[in-house]
Structure to design on (295 residues):
């Protein structure tokens, strides 16, 4: 039987039956609209519509969902290569993982039941996925002259990235300051006008305050990422010469970090893993075991 999918609404259905996905149902149950509120830019506001569900019941549902979410999250984190790291080469959806016989981890397309594939998706044991990643890492082993050149490239690139980030941080800081001054002036104006007009000023202040929060979030995110990740490519490159041998001894979180830093578009095609390398690792892979011209 042919199956169809409404991507925009997240609903799967066949010609005779309709099946709602768990994620779509979860979003519905999380929506504060049903208790007379609405969400805007990650903030909850009081609405003017009548509540559909009793708030006590809604809060109880949220606690149940939180409990299930925490349980699922803890299980997911035990899988090294699932949850978005690898995609299905056929349909493009995430490769998911399951534990079989309480010991063995297998990977397969998460949409195998809902989307037709050219070939039926196969369960791939984790050791086969890992052995292919190690083979891909072995391509990063470079002759010394090529290694020295790439290291110099990384240092120059890092300096350029630092300059760009600092410029954006300064720009965001200026915009945050200007927007906050506007919010303060609107609030001051609201305090000076009649009550009938104050509500309009308060709504306008809330809108501008939301903009400030978005800018501040971007500022914090950029600053944190800049401080934590600026030297990561250099560190991984330094390990690259022996990384393929050390890889099996690393913790799952470390393996995942290395895989996501080195590769892009990790795809599972049947039982075969293929990948594109991120820059500058693509340069390493293309020049492995090849002497540097003019060296």
């Amino acid at each position: 039987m042919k199956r169809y999918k409404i991507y925009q609404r997240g609903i799967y259905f066949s010609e005779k039956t309709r099946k709602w996905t768990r994620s779509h149902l979860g979003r519905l149950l999380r929506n504060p609209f049903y208790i007379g509120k609405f969400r805007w830019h990650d903030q909850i506001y009081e609405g003017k519509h009548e509540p559909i569900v009793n708030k006590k019941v809604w809060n109880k549902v949220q606690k149940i969902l939180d409990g299930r979410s925490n349980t699922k999250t803890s299980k997911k984190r035990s899988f090294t290569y699932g949850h978005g790291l690898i995609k299905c080469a056929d349909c493009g959806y995430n490769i998911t993982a399951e534990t079989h016989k309480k010991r063995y981890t297998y990977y397969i397309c998460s949409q195998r039941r809902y989307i037709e594939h050219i070939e039926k998706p196969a369960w791939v044991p984790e050791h086969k996925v890992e052995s292919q990643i190690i083979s891909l890492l072995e391509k990063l082993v470079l002759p010394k002259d090529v290694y020295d050149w790439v290291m110099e490239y990384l240092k120059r690139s890092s300096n350029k990235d630092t300059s760009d980030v600092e410029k954006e941080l300064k720009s965001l800081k200026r915009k945050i300051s200007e927007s906050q001054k506007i919010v303060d002036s609107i609030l001051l104006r609201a305090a000076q006008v009649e009550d009938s007009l104050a509500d309009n000023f308060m709504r306008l202040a809330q809108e501008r305050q939301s903009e400030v929060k978005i800018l501040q979030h971007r500022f914090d995110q950029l600053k944190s990422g800049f401080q934590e990740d600026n030297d990561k490519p250099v560190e991984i490159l330094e390990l690259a010469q022996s990384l393929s041998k050390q890889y099996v001894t690393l913790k799952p979180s470390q393996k995942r970090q290395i895989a996501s830093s080195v590769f892009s578009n990790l795809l599972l095609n049947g039982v075969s893993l293929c990948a594109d390398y991120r820059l500058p690792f693509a340069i390493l892979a293309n020049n492995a075991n090849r002497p540097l011209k003019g060296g």
